[in-house]
Structure formats: structure tokens, C-alpha cells
Amino acid sequence: MDCEILVSGVPLTVKSVFAVIMHQSVTDRLSARAEAFVRTSGMRVNTPGRRTRTTVVLGRVLGILMLVCFSTGLYSHVLQNPPEWFPLSPQPAQLYRFTQGTHVLAGLALVPVLLGKLWSVFPRLFVWPPVTGVLSFLERLAVAVLVSTALLEVALGVMNIAQWYIFPFSFRRVHFALAWILIGSIALHVAIKLPAIVSFWRRPSVDSHTTTDAPASGDTSSHAEAVSRRGALIAVGTAAGLIVATTAGQTFAPLRSIAFLAPRRPYTGPQSLPVNRTAAEAGVLDSARSPSWRLTITGATKSIELSREDLLSMNQTTVELPIACVEGWSQQATWRGVRLKDLLELVDERNVDVRLESLQVRGAFATTTMQAAYVADPTTLAALFLGDEPLDIDHGYPLRVIAPGRPGVLQTKWLSRIEVIR
Ligand SMILES: Nc1nc2c(c(=O)[nH]1)N[C@H]1C(S)=C(S)[C@@H](COP(=O)(O)O)O[C@H]1N2
Ligand SMILES: [Mo]
């Protein structure tokens, strides 16, 4: 049938293309070289640690961590770019803190698991010839995309939380796009490997003879040099555990004293709260301290200006809300100020989306958007105080936004203008 001819014809084509590009004797020599390289570089193809079970176990852990990162990342993305249909909810107030803390911790735990998984399949990168048919071509393509995207995605994430912005593109857009490529290539990879995975887990007894550290018969590696499967998993697990334990303190305060890897630690910085961008970095030192500062509130029919004294004379509300940075650190704090919805009532507006503008002239977070659900929440404030003191200039003096359940990037500091969006 047509279909069969097509399916069996393509591998022939792939092979013949290879034969044209490389003369048969050249491929033979390359193949021998690759084998010699594998042997001399000390990579023991048959080392127990490299056998299938390690690969499958690491693959599962990797898959789970990647799904956790993907779903929490998607949530973070949606909060920052909400589609019309998405039911935004300010409560629970701690939800984003939890999802984003998890995103970053799972992403960091991914580093040793990813490296361990690569180590466990490394010799197969030297299998020759590299492509034997349509399925093997797809398989290799999926793996190549999967490996390169995973490494790049994790590297970008780590660079971002370390605030090492050497890339000339928008981190968020690239991180988001790569996430989709990654999840797609994982789906393809798992689909192709499914028969192997299923048959492997259906026959656990076959493998039980080789679960010890001793090399199986026919194994060319020496016992002493063999890295045990258990050892490999323990090494990866320990590395992941150490990374998580020494970073988790950035969001889970009881572990803060051992948060050696955390770029930001709770209870540090002015007023015992970390700062992401200082007033000096935002270029607002003078404008924020200026006595002529006013908050402008603009509705459809009315616009008003309020001084700090005007705001202080209004009804004050105290709330306990976290700053939950997209970079994974978070901290609960006590804020006092005027309810945002009370301010909008002054211009006869309720149930509206607003644009929040800061004194900052440049920068991605100089202006943000807040949807009606957050504006209406009784704990959403234009905050004047942090704890019992007026806001430190680095925390947004004279006025900042604090709302429940939102990414830190949207908690606009040095607020100067609230404008209703039509
Ligand atoms: N105008 C302005 N507001 C801003 C930022 C900024 O760069 N400019 N950074 C945001 C980020 S990324 C975070 S995590 C929080 C941190 O608030 P804090 O510095 O008071 O802890 O402020 C947010 N508000
Ligand atoms: Mo942030």
C-alpha cells in the first residue's frame, strides 16, 4: 500500500542522503572514532548507574519538576497578562507567594536532576549511525530540542534570579516561549519512549538481577570504576536537596539562616524587607522626596489631586500582605494606608480596571495595570506605612500599591497616578 511504501521509503532516503554526504568508509571511520572516544574518556556505557532504571527514575522526577515549573510559570504569566476569560482572584492572598516560590525552587532542583539524567544517557549521544529511520530521526530531534531547550530554560531562569541580565531580549517572553517548546518536545519524547517505559515497568523482575552494584555479566567496566545506580540517584538527590534547603529560606523564613544560595533573604534591607529596585536605580530620589508630590486620580468624568497630608487624613486600613517577587523570594509585612477602592470612590468610580503610574520614567514596571477584582478587594491599599513607619524611599515613599495575590512586579512603588481604563 501507498502508506507502507512511504513509511519504509523515507528511512531509505535518509540513509541514502547520509551515504551521499559521507562516503561509507568515512562513516565507518567516524563510528570507530566515536567508540574509541567513549572508551578512552572513561565513560562506561555499561556502568550500572547509567542503566535504564536510573534513566527512567530521573526522567520521572525531571518530568514532574518540569510540569510543576510549567504550571506555576503559566499561572505567573497569566497574572501578569490576564486573558479576558481568566477568573482572576485576589484571594487566597498567599497563593502567588506559594506558586512562585515553588516555581523557583523546583527550577533550581531541576539543575542536578537534569545533569544526572544527561549523564545517564550520555553514551547514547555517540551511537552511530545517528539516524536509522523516521522514528529514530524524530526521536533524536525531540531529544536534541528537549535537551538544548531545557538547558537554556534553566540557565535563563538561574541568570534571572541572580539578576544577571546579560541577554539582549525580554527574559519573560523568551522564558515563556521556550517553556512551550520544552513541554512540546517532552510530550513528543515521552510518546516515542512510551513503549519502552511501559514494557520496562511491566517487567520489574527481569531487572532485579542487575539492581546490585556489581556489573552484570558481559559488562566491560571494572567493578571498582562502576558507579552504582544507587550512588547516582543519591548524588543527584543530595545535590537537589542541598540546593532547595539553602534557597528555600528566601520564601520560607524559618530556613533563612541557611539560605546561602538565595539572592534575597527575608528580614534584610531597609525596614527589614528586601528591596528589588532601589529609588536610586529607578531614578526617583528627588521626585519621591519633592514637597510638590501629588497623587492624581483620574476617572471618566472627574480628576483629583491629593497630597500626602490629604491621604493621611483619610480612613486608614492596616493589612498583612506579602511581597512575592517573581524571582522567588517573598516576605510577609504589615502595611497601612488608604483602600484603593476608597480613592476611586472620590472620582465616582467602582468596579473598574486601573492603570497605576509611578514617578519612575523608564523601566518595565514604571506603569502597571490592575484589574477590577483587585481594585475592589478591601485589603488592596495605596500604602503610606510599612509597619509603624512611613515607607522607606526604597519601598516606595511617598506611596505604593500593595494588593493580595499579585506578583511583586505589580506592587508599584512611588505611585503618582491612578487612571481608570476604559
Ligand atoms: N515603580 C516600581 N515599582 C516596583 C518595582 C520597580 O522596579 N519600579 N519593582 C517591583 C518588584 S520586582 C518587586 S519584587 C517589589 C519589591 O518591593 P520592595 O522593594 O518594597 O520589597 O516592588 C515592585 N515595585
Ligand atoms: Mo520582583
Provide a descriptive summary of the structure in words.
- The chain has 422 residues and is an alpha+beta fold.
- It folds into three domains: 30 residues; 176 residues, Fumarate Reductase Cytochrome B subunit (Up-down Bundle); 150 residues, Sulfite Oxidase, Chain A, domain 2.
- Helices cover 47% and strands 12% of the residues.
- The chain has 13 helices and ten strands.
- Strands 2-1-10-5-6 form a five-stranded mixed sheet.
- Strand 1 and strand 2 form a beta hairpin.
- Helix 4 packs antiparallel against helix 8.
- The longest helix has 32 residues.
- Bound molecules: the ligand Nc1nc2c(c(=O)[nH]1)N[C@H]1C(S)=C(S)[C@@H](COP(=O)(O)O)O[C@H]1N2 and molybdenum atom.
- The site of the ligand Nc1nc2c(c(=O)[nH]1)N[C@H]1C(S)=C(S)[C@@H](COP(=O)(O)O)O[C@H]1N2 has 21 residues, from loops.
